[in-house]
Amino acid sequence: MKKIFSTSRAPAAIGPYSQAVEMRNTLYVSGQIPINPETGKLVEGDITVQTERVFRSISAILDVAGYSFIDVVKSTCILSDISNFKAMNEVYARYYPEKQPARSAFAAKELPLGALIEIETIAMK
């Protein structure tokens, strides 16, 4: 049975989707962009600042669903500029110091609201 999760500690969906959906012990976290959940606005700052905001949102969603970063099996990182890869990767490494999940990372022409990064996540129990 499909279960929907949401938390006010992460930005509300800006379209017709859920923050996260769980099915058969697998949690699918929608792509998170660096929106401040209190203001609903994109955080200002470089890729490091924006990546940290994204990970705080992912952490909040994992937490409300009863998961943690150790349960993450796959991440997809979408950058607005591939030259930001190294700086994003440094933040990413702090959240996955060991037993890192599988990952894809690529650049897209544009991200919603002019974000520099979007990360979607899959976690399993």
Describe the structure.
This protein is of the alpha+beta class and 125 residues long. It has one domain (3-124): 60s Ribosomal Protein L30, Chain: A (2-Layer Sandwich). It is 23% helix and 29% strand. The protein has helices at residues 47-64, 85-95, and strands at 3-5, 20-23, 26-32, 72-79, 102-107, 117-124. A 6-stranded mixed beta sheet has the order 1-2-3-6-4-5, covered by helices on one side. A hairpin with a 2-residue loop joins strand 2 and strand 3. Helix 1 packs parallel to helix 2 (85-95). The protein is globular, with a radius of gyration of 14 Å. The two termini are 15 Å apart. 30% of the residues are buried.
List the helices and strands and how they pair.
Elements lengths: L2 E3 L14 E4 L2 E7 L14 H18 L7 E8 L5 H11 L6 E6 L9 E8 L1
Parallel strand pairs: 4-5
Antiparallel strand pairs: 1-2, 2-3, 3-6, 4-6
Helix pairs in contact: 1-2
